[in-house]
Specification:
Helix content: 25-40%
Number of strands: 13
Distance between the termini: 92 Å
Order of helices and strands: HHHHHEEEEEEEEEEEEE
Number of helices: 5
Number of domains: 2
Shape: elongated
Length: about 375
């Protein structure tokens, strides 16, 4: 570009007759030079638009699939940043496109003025009219169509891959993940009844068998049910149909490990991802929880719980409920009948099954 620019300046600064053929050549070269620059700018814009389109779809999908306020705020911020950047990229392209067009017209106008002043009129009309054919052109329609197809393909691909709940975990070693809330019911000195509610937030849509692992090998699985809400179209209206306490078939794999057979409709897109829960009822002998010598804490009672997710979870809550006339009482806080010894949240993408241990916060009366 600098060589052509210097050549044009040299031509305009020369005295004497002006070579029309040389002027036409320089005019065409100017148009070709600015067209190449415009195509480069437009490709730069399309590359960023494709990337930003994917980022926008990704942030929307993760925002819809997020189960925490922190995660929603983060993905909303990414969405706003991507949208603002997209607007700025388009404004930048508009400014640069206008600048290139104006510079091209000025350069060609100076050449035409020099040709008009120092050459004789050409037979058949002015050469200035012929210069209108030397326009600056951007991308070819075919290439622009390819960019549009690429943008749509990226948006659709990101949408399909990051659909809430359909994220694949090839490197994390698990197919299902979510949150878990436990209620440990103390009804006497015998067995404890535990009600674990799992809310799925991530799953493999091509898997129908989910394996759960008890935190204790001598734990007994009593029942498994699932609940949820399916949205269906009825009489031109979308209605929510609740599914409650539907029994899930299961089988024992090894000691403390079970496989649940999930129904196919559980993974339908119409199944509300915010209301897809599995209730696991299991029991455990209370004597299993007696703390060892180095773990006893009289302030919090003689029992200690091993905290473990039945599947990888990023949120875990332990609630203890003491039934009337069971011979036990709450210690260390809470009400007379219930307390929450432990709760924790690790973030959107931090899932684990081992959460340490804590006191059960009960003692005999």
């Amino acid at each position: 570009m600098s060589e052509l620019n210097n050549e044009v300046k040299k031509s305009l600064g020369e005295n004497g007759p002006f070579d029309p053929a040389r002027g036409r050549k320089q005019r065409k070269e100017l148009a070709a030079m600015f067209s190449a620059k415009l195509r480069m700018v437009e490709r730069f814009m399309w590359i960023h638009l494709v990337i930003l389109a994917g980022l926008i779809v990704f942030s929307i999908q993760r925002f819809l699939g997020s189960t925490t306020t922190k995660g929603q705020i983060m993905y909303l911020g990414i969405f706003i940043l991507a949208m603002a950047t997209q607007v700025l990229i388009k404004l930048w392209y508009w400014v640069v496109n206008t600048k290139i067009g104006v510079l091209k017209e000025i350069k060609q106008l100076r050449l035409e003025m020099a040709m008009a002043e120092r050459t004789k009129p050409l037979p058949g009309g002015s050469d200035v009219d012929a210069s209108l054919k030397d326009r600056v052109t951007g991308l070819h329609k075919r290439e622009r169509m390819i960019w549009w197809i690429g943008l749509v393909a990226v948006a659709v691909g990101v949408s399909l891959f990051f659909t809430p709940g359909r994220v694949v975990f090839p490197r994390r070693g698990f197919d299902f993940a979510g949150t878990q809330a436990d209620e440990w019911h103390i009804s006497g000195p015998g067995d404890i009844s535990i009600y674990s509610r799992i809310s799925l937030t991530r799953w493999r849509w091509d898997r129908s068998a989910m394996v759960i692992t008890m935190p204790y090998d001598n734990a007994r699985l009593e029942s498994v049910t699932y609940s949820g809400t399916v949205k269906e179209l009825q009489d031109s209206k979308i209605v929510s149909i609740p599914y409650s306490n539907r029994v899930l078939p299961h089988r024992k794999l090894t000691q403390g490990k079970y496989e649940l057979e999930l129904p196919e409709k559980f993974f339908y897109p119409s199944f509300d991802p915010l209301h897809r829960t599995i209730d696991v009822v299991w029991s455990l002998p209370l004597e299993t929880l007696e703390a060892g010598e180095g773990e006893k804490d009289p302030k919090w009672g003689p029992y200690r719980v091993r905290l473990g997710g039945l599947i990888p979870v990023n949120s875990f809550v332990l609630k203890v409920v003491v039934e009337p006339d069971c011979g036990f009482e709450i210690v260390g806080g809470g009400t007379n009948t219930e307390t929450i010894p432990f709760w924790s949240f690790r973030g959107d993408d931090t899932y684990k099954t081992v959460w340490g241990s804590c006191s059960l916060c009960i003692q005999k009366k």
